[in-house]
Amino acid sequence: MLEKRFAAAGQRPLPAPATRQRLLWLWLAFCVVKLSGAVLLHRLYNGGDVWQPALWESTSLVVASGIMALHYRVVRRSGELVGQPWRWLLANLIPLPLWCLLFTPLTYGLRHALYEAIGRSYHHAGWSGVLIYESLQLSLFFLLWLAVVYALASQERIRQEQTQRREVLNALREAHLTLLRQQLQPHFLFNALNLISATMYEDVPKADALLRHLAKLLRQAIASSHQANHSLQEEVCLLRAYAEIMGARFEGRVTVDWQVDAALDDCRLPAMITQPLLENAFKYGVEPFSTPSRLQVQIDAPVAGHLRVRIVQNRGRHAPGAEPGHGLANIRQRLAAHYDDRASLTLDNLEPEGVCATLSLPCAY
């Protein structure tokens, strides 16, 4: 998928429909202004009927519109040169002599035909003077129009590049998140198998129970591994299955209390984002101690739209500034990739002892 998106980023799409519509509306506005200006100037300086200047300007605009429509094919072909202004300008100026040669005969031919149709004669200056005047006028307006076209084409190119950049960044982000999830699963499985290995020679029935719990947990983990996020209800099911494994491992040495707000069951969060926190609580708050320990899993939303997961262990201490383990580093990287700075993970020492791990993140449905 990532390779396809990089390939797509290198393509140069045709001008967007919105850009073509804007060009069309701008040309129509230009025609209206040009026609109105010619009629107004004739009325101010010459007076009398204005049908003749209106007809002259209309024929010029009709022919110019046809030429611009033909030239649009050149604009489309030169789209890949928008990033090189002088080459783009040269590519669009090459047909200009042809347009000048076509413009005057077609425009004046149309005028003669219309005058003939109403039984009148159309008189104008000599052909050499007319050709020079009309060619200069067309060239001037053509250059102004090219400036407008280039501005819109550049704007579209910038928009396309921004869209492609966002797509590539999103693809990289998705690949990074997938990698982090794939890193977490073997890490978790390795730790769980180590627990079973440490138990099987001491207590075979307990090891058998651990294997059954692990099978249940793996089924749930595999079901969640194909999606970037899942519901809080699914996340809590994974946590409970993991707690069952660890509870069997440390039978009689740990109690896990659950305080989960059922109203948050449909809240979406990254799959298995909380499991390393519970793993850490067992590792540092239960395993080192021979006397019973207590863990609390508290999930609520103290601020509307923001989910808070707290895992509290009543034993052990957190060493501030200590290098975070693989699980905690994985959580922080996933939070940054999913939420930027809108999510956080903190570890706080409790008095007289114990640690509270707090995960705070936006609650989306």
Structure report:
The chain has 365 residues and is of the alpha+beta class. It has two domains: 167 residues, no CATH class; 160 residues, Heat Shock Protein 90 (2-Layer Sandwich). It is 64% helix and 13% strand. The strands form two sheets. A five-stranded mixed sheet has the order 2-4-5-7-6, covered by helices on one side. A two-stranded antiparallel ribbon has the order 1-3. Helix 2 runs antiparallel to helix 3. The protein is rod-shaped, with a radius of gyration of 37 Å. The two termini are 26 Å apart.
Any chance you could write out the topology, listing elements then pairs?
Elements: H1 2-9, H2 17-45, H3 51-77, H4 85-93, H5 96-117, H6 127-200, H7 204-225, E1 229-231, H8 232-249, E2 254-260, E3 268-270, H9 275-285, E4 293-303, E5 306-313, H10 326-339, E6 344-349, E7 355-362
Strand proportion: 5-15%
Q: Give the number of helices.
A: 10
The helix-and-strand class reads alpha+beta
Number of strands: 7
Mean pLDDT: 82
* Fraction in helix: 55-70%
From the spread of the alpha carbons, the general shape counts as rod-shaped
Spatial strand arrangement across the major sheet: 2-4-5-7-6
Task: State the domain count.
Answer: 2
Radius of gyration: 37 Å
Poorly predicted spans = 1-14
* Largest sheet entry: 5 strands, mixed
Question: How would you summarize this macromolecular structure in one to three sentences?
Answer:
By secondary structure, this protein is of the alpha+beta class. It is built from 10 helices and 7 strands. A 5-stranded mixed sheet has the order 2-4-5-7-6, covered by helices on one side.
